[in-house]
């Protein structure tokens, strides 16, 4: 009996040793990005009243989604701004950790796309100066709103997501599955800045407001 038990134990160990090892999960796409990594993900949605069976293209649906921005560059990203190309007549109800860069208020219509600016933390530090602390290197913006015409299980994805800070270029984003849009933005080698790293204030950009006070 003991010999039989020993034989079976040895056989099981031999089978386990010859079994193919489970492949490791691939590293996240952000690991391959040595710049600014952007990701937009759709979470969930549902139909909201009124129910328009006669015109499904105008049927309203709640959507919940989020986008994230991660600084994998060697320098801090000051006053980050991200464009999200909404294309389903979206009406934005709430956004965490960001405001609309054009000064418009939330709730409001963003159906033609909009630029978000980081708030209350507009700057993203590097991995080097934070020892890889993602809470200082990245930001996540959770969105809730209403879109029209895209019924679940289809996902109302934006047409584009990109970094609009001066000096950066973003290729066309790629879909990961049906609910995630990703892109890695890198520094524009042709861009010449008129500000040094040690200066406190950023150079003028499109959309800046100049206030003059005269006595």
UniProtKB/TrEMBL annotation:
Signal peptide segment: 1-21
Keyword terms of this UniProt record: Signal
Name assigned to this protein: COBRA-like protein 8
């Amino acid at each position: 009996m003991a010999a039989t038990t020993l034989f079976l134990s040895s056989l099981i160990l031999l089978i386990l040793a010859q079994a193919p090892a489970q492949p490791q999960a691939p590293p996240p796409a952000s690991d391959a990005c040595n710049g600014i990594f952007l990701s937009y993900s759709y979470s969930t949605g549902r139909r909201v009243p009124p129910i328009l069976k006669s015109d499904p293209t105008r049927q309203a649906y709640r959507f919940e989604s989020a986008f994230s921005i991660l600084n994998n560059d060697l320098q801090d990203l000051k006053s980050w701004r991200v464009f999200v190309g909404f294309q389903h007549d979206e009406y934005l109800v709430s956004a965490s950790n960001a405001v609309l860069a054009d000064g418009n208020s939330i709730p409001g219509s963003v159906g033609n796309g909009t630029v978000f600016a980081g708030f209350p933390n507009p700057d993203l530090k590097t991995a080097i100066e934070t020892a890889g602390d993602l809470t200082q290197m990245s930001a996540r913006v959770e969105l809730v709103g209403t879109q029209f015409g895209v019924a679940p299980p289809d996902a109302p994805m934006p047409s584009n997501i990109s970094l609009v800070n001066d000096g950066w270029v973003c290729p066309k984003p790629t879909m990961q599955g049906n609910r995630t849009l990703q892109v890695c933005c890198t520094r524009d080698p042709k861009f010449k800045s008129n500000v040094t790293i040690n200066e406190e204030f950023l150079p003028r950009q499109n959309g800046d407001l100049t206030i003059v006070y005269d006595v």
